[in-house]
Amino acid sequence: MLQRGKHSAVAATLVVITLSACGTAAPAGDAVETTPTPPATVPPDGPQQIEGDGWRLLADQTGKGDPWQVHIARDSVEYDTLWTSLEFEGDQPGVDFEQEVVVHFG
Do 2 and 94 form a contact (C-beta atoms < 8 A)? Predict the structure, then answer.
């Protein structure tokens, strides 16, 4: 396992997802069916998109966190803890936790 800060290619990304865009979650333990993404709908190579339908990018910084880790912040306390533990630089963007959640992809 890579140690924090030892691999410069590891990036931590925080995304806000609008709850209404998520639909209804399957009950815990139920299988979730997925459909492969058709190649024509995959975003083209180029600059990082900063928003889309039901989401917006909060931060994307290299060398933060551990690879393959995913976390969710459902309130401001969890968000503050996540932001601090990942040692993100810059101001922490605002989030409306009545309508949004924060997801970290390591």
Answer: no
